[in-house]
């Protein structure tokens, strides 16, 4: 942009002042870099709010986190309302996740907690609408800032999957510029430290080329989380490595970026500084069903996805702790020397995943290359309870602790293993000889389009959500759909039970009457403008509510699944004016409001005609 002629006459005066202001701005912004000159590495951890719905020891809440594990925790995911304002996605986000992580920040003052918004299953039409309109961007950014401050976040993580054309590419830059400018404007007011601004970005060269102006984003973002996983999965009919460290020699030069090393180099050569590139480490794997069990090599033919396991309950996916379970049951394992990945085979079930050895290899490389750090996707698929992997003698978070230790400078991680061999558990001399193949479609000669995967536990569903709520799977009574924001998350009932559309829960064929009683009472001393005062309280009374339904509907998050089963209790919760969300079952009024839900009639019954925000639409 050039100055008007009248201003150019004073160019000497302006240039000096512009130079001074630029230097001051850069110096100020540099103070907020997460990777500083002292060599600190980012140790990021994604915490997902849907892992709470896994059964028993697989259920994950923020209270399962351990202080000091991570430098940055990304709470995934929030969503956007039809009015383009930020809002919670799960009914208990505020109480079970946001407030709990604020408590962890008191234990670890250096911990940064960021709100992550978007994700694979998010309706990207909203991102397109926001990014294409200056007016809507203003509404969204103002709402974002209010939300972050109301809930004590240290920053924002944008997960748009993915901008796909030149218009959306430009829109992403404009959105990021608006967010960064608003964060800087707030800091200049002096009331708060500047919020961090990050983004989760793809590893695929095609995605990067189409949707990301890397130099422009580098000026807006503090760092990017490169999703260096899901390179291969059961959408291909050949086995492959979920997160290869390096490419296999048989790959063409075009595929050089389809690995951790290749993706990092791609973002660097496109214009993202190394210290702003944070590398993804998966705590889960991808699985296939083999066509021929005699050929367990990487690249062998498959007939489809592996069968869903007990905890992740999604075809083609395995948590690290589920790998430990299969090893205890006699599964065989070996290491693919070229990619560094661990391979596990049980019958015709074939999995590639990361273990501590593959983590170490990647982390050592991150240190040597001086990238910004690493992050795990995600906390809930590591052995977070320390009960699944006996080879670590009860150590919680063995994978995350490996990242923590190595990025803190402990090159040799203490090995707690007592019975885990680092050598292959069976001989497979040719396991690295077969090329892994990506599922590709050729649009034009030389143009390869890589098929990408959904994140763990949020596989794409064809179920069409009529509105938010629970819906029976018409093809399988043992499963149902949890609809939120138009997106369907497939969930499974326990063995021997089926989902009832009448009761809205998983149960035995003979159902007992279940009820939910809710009372909401505004505080007599509440001030709508003061978030320090209790604004409203609610109490719940439930009888004969299954753990599945209770975990989905009730704002009771301190009880274990066993305590939730057929319980009859009453819990009280406090709310503040800025933290009330529709999915918290809160409605405010001048008088006490009582509502009772009868699972038999499937209708809300309210006194004084007050309605709950979560009431089934008419």
TrEMBL record:
<dbReference type="Pfam" id="PF00704">
    <property type="entry name" value="Glyco_hydro_18"/>
</dbReference>
<keyword id="KW-0326">Glycosidase</keyword>
<dbReference type="InterPro" id="IPR050314">
    <property type="entry name" value="Glycosyl_Hydrlase_18"/>
</dbReference>
<feature type="signal peptide">
    <location>
        <begin position="1"/>
        <end position="30"/>
    </location>
</feature>
<dbReference type="InterPro" id="IPR036508">
    <property type="entry name" value="Chitin-bd_dom_sf"/>
</dbReference>
<dbReference type="InterPro" id="IPR011583">
    <property type="entry name" value="Chitinase_II/V-like_cat"/>
</dbReference>
<feature type="domain" description="GH18">
    <location>
        <begin position="41"/>
        <end position="410"/>
    </location>
</feature>
<dbReference type="Pfam" id="PF01607">
    <property type="entry name" value="CBM_14"/>
</dbReference>
<comment type="similarity">
    <text>Belongs to the glycosyl hydrolase 18 family. Chitinase class II subfamily.</text>
</comment>
<dbReference type="GO" id="GO:0005576">
    <property type="term" value="C:extracellular region"/>
</dbReference>
<keyword id="KW-0732">Signal</keyword>
<keyword id="KW-1015">Disulfide bond</keyword>
<dbReference type="InterPro" id="IPR001223">
    <property type="entry name" value="Glyco_hydro18_cat"/>
</dbReference>
<dbReference type="GO" id="GO:0008061">
    <property type="term" value="F:chitin binding"/>
</dbReference>
<feature type="domain" description="Chitin-binding type-2">
    <location>
        <begin position="462"/>
        <end position="516"/>
    </location>
</feature>
<dbReference type="GO" id="GO:0006032">
    <property type="term" value="P:chitin catabolic process"/>
</dbReference>
<dbReference type="InterPro" id="IPR029070">
    <property type="entry name" value="Chitinase_insertion_sf"/>
</dbReference>
<protein>
    <submittedName>
        <fullName>Chitin-binding type-2 domain-containing protein</fullName>
    </submittedName>
</protein>
<dbReference type="InterPro" id="IPR017853">
    <property type="entry name" value="GH"/>
</dbReference>
<dbReference type="GO" id="GO:0005975">
    <property type="term" value="P:carbohydrate metabolic process"/>
</dbReference>
<dbReference type="InterPro" id="IPR002557">
    <property type="entry name" value="Chitin-bd_dom"/>
</dbReference>
<dbReference type="InterPro" id="IPR001579">
    <property type="entry name" value="Glyco_hydro_18_chit_AS"/>
</dbReference>
<keyword id="KW-0378">Hydrolase</keyword>
<dbReference type="GO" id="GO:0004568">
    <property type="term" value="F:chitinase activity"/>
</dbReference>
<keyword id="KW-0147">Chitin-binding</keyword>
């Amino acid at each position: 942009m050039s100055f008007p002629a009248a201003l150019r006459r004073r160019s000497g005066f302006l240039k000096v002042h512009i130079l001074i202001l630029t230097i001051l701005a850069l110096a100020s912004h540099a103070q907020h870099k997460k990777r500083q000159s002292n060599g600190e590495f980012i140790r990021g951890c994604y915490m997902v709010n849907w892992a709470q719905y896994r059964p028993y020891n697989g259920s994950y809440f923020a209270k399962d986190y351990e202080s000091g594990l991570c430098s940055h925790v990304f709470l995934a995911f929030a969503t956007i309302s039809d009015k383009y304002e930020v809002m919670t996605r799960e009914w208990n986000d505020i109480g079970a996740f946001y407030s709990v992580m604020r408590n962890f920040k008191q234990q670890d003052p250096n911990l940064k907690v960021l709100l992550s918004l978007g994700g694979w299953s998010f309706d990207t039409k909203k991102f397109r609408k926001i990014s294409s309109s200056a007016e809507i961007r203003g509404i969204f950014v103002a709402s974002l800032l209010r939300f972050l401050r109301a809930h004590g976040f240290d920053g924002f993580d944008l997960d748009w999957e993915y901008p796909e054309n030149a218009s959306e590419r430009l829109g992403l830059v404009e959105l990021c510029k608006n967010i960064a400018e608003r964060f800087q404007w707030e800091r200049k007011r002096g009331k708060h430290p500047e919020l961090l601004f990050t983004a989760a970005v793809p590893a695929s060269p095609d995605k990067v080329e189409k949707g990301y102006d890397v130099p422009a984003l580098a000026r807006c973002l503090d760092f990017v989380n490169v999703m260096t996983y899901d390179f291969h999965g059961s959408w291909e009919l050949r086995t492959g490595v979920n997160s290869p460290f390096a490419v296999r020699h048989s790959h063409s030069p075009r595929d050089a970026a389809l690995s951790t090393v290749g993706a990092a180099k791609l973002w660097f050569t496109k214009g993202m500084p190394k210290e702003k590139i944070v590398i993804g480490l998966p705590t889960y794997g991808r699985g296939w069903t083999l066509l021929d069990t005699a050929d367990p090599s990487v690249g062998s033919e498959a007939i489809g996805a592996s069968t869903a396991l007990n905890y992740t309950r999604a075809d083609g996916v395995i948590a690290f702790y589920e790998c430990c379970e299969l090893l205890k049951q006699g599964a065989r394992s070996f290491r693919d020397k070229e990619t560094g990945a661990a391979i596990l085979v049980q019958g015709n079930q074939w999995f590639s995943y990361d273990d501590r050895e593959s983590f170490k290899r990647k982390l050592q490389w991150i240190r040597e290359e001086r990238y910004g750090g690493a992050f795990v996707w995600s906390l809930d698929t590591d052995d977070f309870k320390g009960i699944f992997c006996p080879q670590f003698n009860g150590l919680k978070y063995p994978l995350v602790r490996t990242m923590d230790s190595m990025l803190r400078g402990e090159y040799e991680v203490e090995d707690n293993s007592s019975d885990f061999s680092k050598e292959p558990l069976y001989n497979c001399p040719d396991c690295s000889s077969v090329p892994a193949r990506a599922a590709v479609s050729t649009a034009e000669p030389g143009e390869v389009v890589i098929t990408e995967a959904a994140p763990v536990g949020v596989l794409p569903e064809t179920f069409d959500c009529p509105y938010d709520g629970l819906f029976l799977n018409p093809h399988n009574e043992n499963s149902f759909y949890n609809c939120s924001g138009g997106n369907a998350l497939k969930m499974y009932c326990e063995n021997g039970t089926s989902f009832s559309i009448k009761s809205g829960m998983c149960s035995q064929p003979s159902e007992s009457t279940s009820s939910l009683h809710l009372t909401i009472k505004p505080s007599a001393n509440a001030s709508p403008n003061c978030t320090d005062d209790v604004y409203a309280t609610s109490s719940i009374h439930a009888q004969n509510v299954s753990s599945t339904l209770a975990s989905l509907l009730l704002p009771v998050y301190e009880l274990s699944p066993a305590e939730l089963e057929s319980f009859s209790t009453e819990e009280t919760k406090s709310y503040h004016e800025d933290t009330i969300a529709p999915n918290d079952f809160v409605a405010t009024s001048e008088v006490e409001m009582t509502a009772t839900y009868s699972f038999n009639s499937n209708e809300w019954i309210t006194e004084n005609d007050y309605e709950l925000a979560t009431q089934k639409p008419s």
